[in-house]
Amino acid sequence: MSWFISEAQAQTAASQPGGSPMVSMIFMVGLFVFFYFIAIRPQRKRQKEHDDLVGALQKGDEVVMTSGLLGKVSKLEGDYLVLAAADNMELKFQKIAVHAILPKGTLKNI
User: Fold this and answer.
1) 62's torsion region: left (phi>0), alpha (psi -120 to 50) or beta?
2) Who's near 83: CB < 8 A, 6+ residues apart?
3) Residue 82's closest CA among 67, 99, 68, 63?
4) CATH topology classification for 58-109
5) Nearest Cα to 89, choosing from 61, 69, 68, 67?
6) 99, 64 Cβ separation under 8 angstroms
7) Model pTM?
8) CB-based contact 97:66 (threshold 8 Å)
9) Per-residue pLDDT tens digits of the chain, which is 110 residues long
10) Domain-by-domain residue ranges, the chain?
């Protein structure tokens, strides 16, 4: 025999479930919907915009790389691009490293 709780009360408390399984399922679905609208959907939208930007690259575009480097696209080679960063200086980058395409003439104004 226990000092604080009788065995009958302990068995009764252990046999009753903590809640309805339907409530747990609704909570899990609600949590997934919340996570989808807060994290997954915006990230997919940003990724699609970046893919469109990379797909629209052309020779002569002025771009900003993710490293902050500014330059003009001089050649496109598959998944890579050659960037003219200065006079007689060309650098090769992956296309996915492009952060933004600048309006024409931006490099001359800087």
Assistant:
1) beta
2) 63, 65, 69, 71, 72, 73, 74, 90, 91, 92, 93
3) 63
4) SH3 type barrels. (2.30.30)
5) 69
6) yes
7) 0.70
8) yes
9) 556 666 655 555 555 556 688 988 999 999 999 999 999 999 999 999 999 999 999 999 999 999 999 999 999 999 999 999 999 999 999 999 999 999 999 998 88
10) 7-53, 58-109
